[in-house]
Design goal:
Largest sheet: none
Shape: globular
Radius of gyration: 22 Å
Helix content: 40-55%
Length: 272
């Protein structure tokens, strides 16, 4: 902030004793304060988190922004995996996000049956397992499906970039994915989980310029008193917080506080 010089005093006159001045809040400082408060409350919301998928994303925020509160997220994830055999195979697959050297057991990949996960898991292991021969077709078709299919195409692109892998796609495909995902963010007053996911992944891809400041302002405004965010604000009465929307919103605010065209990889890199 630039400081303006005070009015000069006439020569040969006593200078009055200076009065303590009160800082004047500007729209910029008010917005920055609201952003920092929202981030602090969002971090607090995840205290004691036991949701495995959220823990992996919190680990990303720890590695990218040094959020100390999330330093033990992977250890908590491992503990949950050890006591929940039914979910262990699925959890081992996605542990790759936080652990470069995670080891799969026979049959683990067969635990991935969700349509959205089938878009992203080939990209997750693209540096060590050949991509399916029809993967380009899968990405292209999912792009045209829109919604969460589209956001997961963007996530797959991010993970392949982290792994240093490319898949043959039509010219301009990635830019089209960026623009279509930006359209998902929307400009209305309602904030939904889809809006949040689209914006969070755009920031992660270094395309934060496609997310308007007005959207970020709305994200801050709809934060619940417990520090989390609802899956949608389009309800007759305020909705409770949902972990998925909350981690996405927190990502958006941390990216906003730390603007960049690139961030440390979302996937944990090989140990040095």
């Amino acid at each position: 902030m630039l400081l303006h010089p005070t009015n000069p005093q006439p020569k040969n006159q006593a200078t009055p004793s200076p009065q303590a001045s009160q800082p004047t809040a500007t729209p910029q400082t008010t917005q920055e304060s609201a952003l920092q408060t929202a981030i602090s409350n969002g971090i607090q919301y995840f205290d004691g988190c036991q949701e495995p998928d959220a823990l992996l994303m919190l680990n990303v925020l720890y590695r990218q922004f040094g959020v100390i509160a999330f330093a033990d997220s992977v250890q908590t994830y491992d503990q949950i995996m050890a006591i929940d055999p039914g979910a262990a195979a699925y959890m081992r697959v996605f542990l790759r996000i936080a652990d470069y050297n995670n080891t799969l057991q026979p049959g683990d990949m067969q635990s991935i049956t969700d349509a959205l996960d089938l878009i992203t898991t080939p990209a997750l292991y693209s540096d060590r397992t050949p991509l399916p021969t029809d993967y380009s077709q899968t990405l292209n078709q999912s792009y045209y499906e829109g919604g969460y299919d589209l956001t997961h195409v963007l996530l797959a692109c991010i993970w392949m970039q982290d792994n240093g892998v490319q898949v043959p796609m039509p010219s301009g495909f990635v830019e089209n994915v960026y623009n279509a995902t930006a359209a998902l963010v929307g400009n209305g007053s309602v904030v939904t989980d889809t809006n949040l996911e689209a914006a969070a992944f755009l920031f992660e891809a270094g395309q934060g310029a496609l997310v308007s400041n007005d959207f970020v302002t709305r994200v801050i405004a709809v934060q619940n008193s417990d520090g989390g965010w609802p899956s949608t604000t389009d309800t007759p009465t305020p909705a409770g917080s949902y972990w998925h929307s909350s981690v996405l919103a927190l990502m958006i605010l941390l990216y906003t506080e730390n603007p960049s065209n690139s961030y440390p990889p979302m996937l944990a890199p090989a140990p040095t």
